[in-house]
């Protein structure tokens, strides 16, 4: 469901040759990274909006990445799913784009809101609600919504971007952040500045209730309709008792069915402020021109008080927790261990541990449980579930092969974990994994998109995008002893939550 850097076209191939596919301890590699770090240019507008620019003039295109420091974790009780909902709204146009008659549309939208509020007020009476009145209010709401829809020029925002040569228009909502991106020809830079600033300065939450139905259907087709989705949600809600990571991203159905356009507006006013956003541009752009256009267009995005931080701390887990689901589906094993956030000094050690244990064909779990014992169809390990801004989970996931049982796979996983905790890892094993991680790190920066994304992430997470170039130093200093130490600290029975999806046994009832 993340880094930043600025690279000249002649530098990246050199980096690949001098050692990013092998050990990265050479002086040449270090000096090249220092040079790249110096090529990232940064400025901040008076409203607090930060920009990072990396000029790459090898093709007449550029990619941008707008990152807003808000995600599912920031939603208050009763409003889960709003971060994702607003991502949908950001493609619906603005006060000047997306409607045939904006004034008439606003009046129709107001009537729609009033009609929904009336229905919701009656609905909240529960068993005391009048069924006939509810039916009448629902009909009135649908009629008002249809009337407002008559003024909408559907998909005008993405169509306009495509008309100007834009490609790759998309967005995502994560537990920690929300991102928006696409690419354009370099001679459309001012068009981009006008359009991108307008959608965050003057958004119109048109077709709100129609799009909310789309999100509800998205939830139904995903987490509600698939056994794996249900297992993940159940396991997450058990692993986290207090922290909002337990709620995920898509939102609870009851919240989706009851939050209003006004709720979304308040969410926007709180989080979509200039000082809570970062924009990274990479490609055939000129820094001085970007800065000039940014001041001209993006200065109109309002700033505000810093959004609230999630102060809830997940209590230390005192006993193993288990979730057992019985369904006629492929059996699955999920094992989750609590670990600190990405800001913790041991974060990169956890990443290496996950790679050694369960990433790739030569990982320990794959070699022992998949290749040798053929107990699983797929197995892996990762960190950062469901996010990494706050303390999160070290995850192990396995799809059980035919002829084997989840408990059998679970026990085999523990045996490999115990062996790692007891015997540690070899220097050769660590070096191999470290080299692979470093290679992947550089590959992710080859494209303008990857570079812009990583720059925006590091600026948001650490306040300085150039910290991207220090990442490899963190991996280089980790020893086999560090791996063994964190493994012994994390892999404790009382620190784990286990999710099991199994087929019903004959004679058993769910």
Automatic annotation (TrEMBL):
Keyword Signal applies: yes
Tagged with keyword Signal:
yes
Q: Per the database record, which ranges form the Peptidase M16 N-terminal domain?
A: 65-113
Q: Name one Pfam family in it.
A: Peptidase_M16
Q: Which GO molecular function, any one, fits this protein according to its record?
A: metal ion binding
Keywords carried by this UniProt record: Signal
Superkingdom, taxonomy of origin: Bacteria
Q: Which InterPro entries match?
A: Metalloenz_LuxS/M16 (IPR011249), MPP/UQCRC_Complex (IPR050361), Pept_M16_N (IPR011765), Peptidase_M16_C (IPR007863)
Database matches in Gene3D superfamilies: Metalloenzyme, LuxS/M16 peptidase-like
Q: Signal sequence span per UniProt?
A: 1-28
Domain spans labelled Peptidase M16 C-terminal:
258-435
Which protein family is named in the record? Belongs to the peptidase M16 family.
Protein name as annotated: Insulinase family protein
Q: What is the lineage of its organism?
A: Bacteria, Candidatus Eiseniibacteriota
